[in-house]
Amino acid sequence: MRYSLVELAPVTPGGTNREALDRALAAAEEAEQLGYHRFWFAEHHHVTGYAAQDPVPLIAAATQRTTRIRLGSGAVLLNHHSAFSVAERFLMLESLAPRRIDLGLGRSTATPLIDHALRRDRNSRPADDFPDQVQEIIGYLHRAFDPAHPFTAIDLTAGIDTIPEVWVLGSSGSSAGLAARLGIGYTFGGHINPGMTTRALRQYRQNFTKTPFGTGVPQAMLALNIVAADDEEKAHRLTWPARALRAGGRDRPIPTLAQAEAELDASARARPSTVVDGVIPTQISGTPATLRAQLEPVIREAGATEVMVQDMLTDSAARTRSRQIVAQVLQSITI
């Protein structure tokens, strides 16, 4: 099956954003070598622990360092952007790397202050117009506006032979119907809301409508936080920095393993990181021998056609080995 990665560009204690971004771009090259299908960059505003604030420049840089792997956003947060500007910027990326660009669309909130700072029009009340924005982007990319629509005269694709592949990302299940109705790919954040995983992806598959805007078949991607190592204890320990970040507040660099061990109490360190009886933990860990037995039933139950892997590993050797193991395991699963 297909397996992909989403990169947060984690910042280490005492490290710089430049170093984090260099690691992120090197990780895109490594992912291509390991056979990952896609490599997406996240959007996080005013977050100390992540250097990936805007995916667009990172995607542009990665197009020059890779040749095969698909590159995209996981996700562009549409509540902070105009549909026109997003469509225009991703068509530019498509020109740089034809047939390799993914436009992942989502919505999220930062603090009220940052949300306000990101807004261009601060005199009107915020509105949740995510479905309208997604459909407007589809209209630009596919020249699909109704003939009476004022934007019909706009042709952003002039001189561009291919267009990005559009995905909707969500973690509550509310966007599953939108992706299904538009006939485009859907990514569910199982690491954020594991209990909704099967229901959300089933809703998407059952309501999928074939349209000219997608591949014609459901693309049901499941995003999970997965770390791996050659022994179970080490693999489990690799989940601690992410746990410490959640427990101690996110406005700081990603804790080292030693910091996480010192910050977490015994119960937090011992919290399960393996899939048991279909229950998906926030972080999944395993070895080459145990990871497949955990993941395959989850993938089959959810009906996922692809897995998007997230991790917060900053140790380069541990990250490389983890991603090697995960790639080998997911590659061995047939659906």
UniProtKB/TrEMBL annotation:
Domain Luciferase-like: 9-305
GO cellular component entries: cytosol
InterPro entries linked to this entry: Bact_Lucif_Oxidored (IPR050766), CmoO-like (IPR019949), Luciferase-like_dom (IPR011251), Luciferase-like_sf (IPR036661)
A GO MF label: oxidoreductase activity, acting on paired donors, with incorporation or reduction of molecular oxygen
Superkingdom of origin: Bacteria
Xref: PANTHER family: LUCIFERASE-LIKE MONOOXYGENASE
Family: To bacterial alkanal monooxygenase alpha and beta chains.
Protein's UniProt name: Luciferase family oxidoreductase, group 1
Species annotation: Actinoplanes philippinensis
